[in-house]
User: What shape does this take?
Amino acid sequence: MKNYKVQKKPFVVPTTDGKLIEEHFGKATDGNDAISIAHMIAPPKWKEPFQTPEFDEFTYIIRGKKQFIIDGEEVILKAGESIKINKNVRVQYSNPFDEECEYLAICMPAFSIEKVNREEK
Assistant: This one.
């Protein structure tokens, strides 16, 4: 048994909003509850409802810009910038801009739909 795992086929999460989510490691790919790592592309004008996740989320912007509303404060990140949002904090993720936003998201513990606590739209 090897002491590493190369991920060549990430799990593509089905979405209805045009966002690409490729989970490389986490609950959906290898059953890991401790951490999830996902590559994402948010289309222009995309947004999610507000949520209060039960996990810390780290985001690194590869290209484009992404908007966060964190406890009512608007934060905009551009390529090369990153952020950590603590668990149990109300946040909304969006891309209100005219270009795609490509980024990496890391959640600790791993992302799960049961622990994201999304508000109704």
User: Anything to note?
Assistant: The radius of gyration is 14 Å. The mean pLDDT is 96.
